[in-house]
From TrEMBL:
It comes from Strongylocentrotus purpuratus (Purple sea urchin). Coiled coil: none annotated. Gene3D superfamilies: 3.30.70.270, HIV Type 1 Reverse Transcriptase, subunit A, domain 1 (3.10.10.10). This is Reverse transcriptase domain-containing protein. It holds the Pfam family RVT_1. The lineage of its organism: Eukaryota, Metazoa, Echinodermata, Eleutherozoa, Echinozoa.
Length: 335
């Protein structure tokens, strides 16, 4: 008789003859397991963990999106602001400020632009400028949001101000580090910070460099805006610091990955992560969050109990890429 990780309520221990390790296969699933050979005549028993790894059983006590929404409703409402943290831009005073020419906004999107500006004002993301010097003024570009007919996105052209903004150098985790960290994990969750950069308050002394012109006047940002050359590194460092000390939690920009081996471990780590986010006044985009997954797409890779593999969609995009048609495209060839 052999028992694999068997737990019994009897107080009499089994007499073990020996152990052996082997690979088990059930349909398309495989798992490594240690078997204990005991005296007696009975059926073989599999542990719960091995049965779950092989896909024989599925546990249903996991945290669900509805559970999280009810317990942490504040996390999915509005735009958060990282507690007790302000981003200071390091501006080189030797660089001469530039007031760039205003770019005319097409008439057919002006109403939509005004509506978006009002939304940003209501969220306390931007502020009207008046009665003060404006050494830096940048133009804006207006784009329609993907999958939306009526919403537009306002982008400030920060290329000229960026010449005066000195970057901070913070490391972003690479995929090799992620693979090492998630080794052995079987269950995953992914959290998406709502409008990432805009949850970081910009220091008062740094806001003047973000002033931009529109057909209804000048505005400046009160939050860290897209286009600032140091925004990605600063944001990564701030969120990483906020989540420091949490086991099984890492982030790349505004995507937060939570992972664990048994479901209970994932649930506990997810609970701790959500509590940390709530305590620091950050909010999430519920539509982009995923909970209790056995396979997770994360930055071009698929994470699962079987390891890490390239995302098939990304691979297919490369395979479908057209052949080079000019000298510039021939610089990189895909065989």
């Amino acid at each position: 008789m052999s028992l694999q990780g068997h737990h019994t309520k009897t107080k009499t221990p089994f007499k073990v003859r020996g152990t052996f390790e082997t690979e088990l296969t059930f349909r398309d699933n495989t798992a490594q397991a240690i078997f204990y050979v005991v005296y007696g005549d009975s059926d073989n028993l599999l542990s719960c963990d091995t049965s779950e790894s092989l896909g024989i059983v599925k546990l249903t006590y996991a945290v669900t999106a509805d559970d999280i929404s009810s317990s942490y409703a504040d996390l999915f409402n509005g735009l958060g602001k990282l507690k007790d943290v302000k981003c200071k831009l390091h501006i080189d005073d030797t660089v001469k400020p530039v007031v760039q020419p205003h770019r005319r906004i097409p008439f057919h999107v002006r109403k939509q632009t005004e509506k978006e500006l009002q939304r940003l004002l209501d969220l306390d993301i931007i502020k009207r400028v008046g009665g003060e010097p404006t050494p830096w003024v940048s133009p804006i570009l207006v784009f329609k949001k993907p999958k939306s007919q009526n919403q537009i996105r306002i982008c400030v052209d920060m290329r000229v101000p960026n010449k005066a903004i000195q970057r901070e150098r913070h490391l972003t985790p690479i995929i090799d580090e992620i693979i090492a960290n998630v080794n052995g994990a079987r269950h995953f969750a992914k959290l998406d910070l709502n409008a990432g950069y805009l949850q970081i308050e910009l220091a008062e002394e740094s806001r003047y460099v973000t002033i931009f012109s529109t057909h209804v006047g000048l505005f400046r940002y009160k939050r860290l805006n897209f286009g600032v050359n140091s925004a990605a590194e600063v944001f990564q460092q701030m969120i990483q610091t906020t989540l420091s000390g949490l086991d099984g939690v890492l982030n790349i920009s505004d995507d937060i990955l939570v992972y664990g081996r048994p479901p209970e471990e994932l649930n506990d780590r997810l609970e701790q992560c959500l509590k940390r986010l709530k305590d620091n006044h950050l909010t999430l985009n519920k539509d982009k969050c995923e909970f209790r997954k056995e396979r997770m797409d994360f930055f071009g890779h698929v994470l699962s109990a079987g390891g890490v593999s390239p995302d098939p969609k990304k691979v297919q995009a490369i395979l479908n890429a057209s052949d080079p048609s000019n000298a510039r495209r021939c610089a990189v060839s895909l065989d």
